[in-house]
Design brief:
The protein is of the alpha+beta class. The protein is built from 5 helices and 6 strands, in the order αααββββββαα.
């Protein structure tokens, strides 16, 4: 008799209707949490910050491959690095040009083209984006072509990465959860800070 009392009482499994009710209650609670979170100032501030960052990223990307704000500089020193490739005119490909301007600032331009090397004392233009004023590309006045500045390569990599992350966070509604929204906002803050110091 005592042995039978100690036997574990088996639990009755929930019916499909009860399981469906529990799932509906959990979904309702989650929706209420999201609804309450959307009313907070934290939600509004973080989302406005993330949207502003996204438009800055798009502007930078647009300036990389489109129009840009050019300023004229004058070189005092030009060094050329050539590659191993030679064209039909027996000209060696120019892989990189190092230019030092009148204010002693150095620019490494990625060329990878058969072009006439610029003269020691020549005008060249540096292109900056419109918002952050980051130096992204250059134009040597004798040549009608844009060339990327080597130091802008990390900016392009970070841009593509953070734009991808931002699109994924919008698709999966990560901005509706305090933890994921905080993580995306922190990532945007770090990227923006890195853009400012690069």
């Amino acid at each position: 008799m005592a042995f039978e009392d100690k036997k574990k009482i088996s639990r009755k499994p929930l019916s499909q209707k009860e399981v469906a009710n529990l799932v509906a209650i959990k979904k309702h609670r989650e929706q209420q949490k999201v609804f309450q979170f959307k009313k907070t100032n934290t939600f509004k501030f973080f989302n406005i910050f993330n949207v502003c960052c996204f438009f800055i990223y798009l502007e930078l990307l647009f300036c990389f491959f489109g129009p840009i704000n050019y300023q004229t500089h004058y070189s005092i020193s030009v060094k050329i690095k050539t590659g191993n490739e030679i064209n039909l005119k027996n000209e060696r490909i120019i892989s990189q040009i190092n230019i030092v301007d009148a204010s002693l600032k150095q620019y490494d331009l990625i060329i990878d083209d058969y072009v006439l090397p610029p003269k020691k004392f020549t005008a060249f233009q540096i292109g900056k984006d419109y918002i952050l004023q980051k130096e992204l590309k250059a134009k040597i006045c004798d040549l009608d072509k844009d060339y990327f500045i080597q130091s802008s390569s990390p900016i392009l990599f970070l841009l593509l990465l953070i734009i991808f992350v931002s699109i994924i966070s919008v698709i999966y509604n990560l901005n509706e959860n305090i933890y994921s929204l905080s993580a995306v906002s922190l990532l945007n803050l770090i990227i923006m800070f890195s853009f400012l110091i690069l």
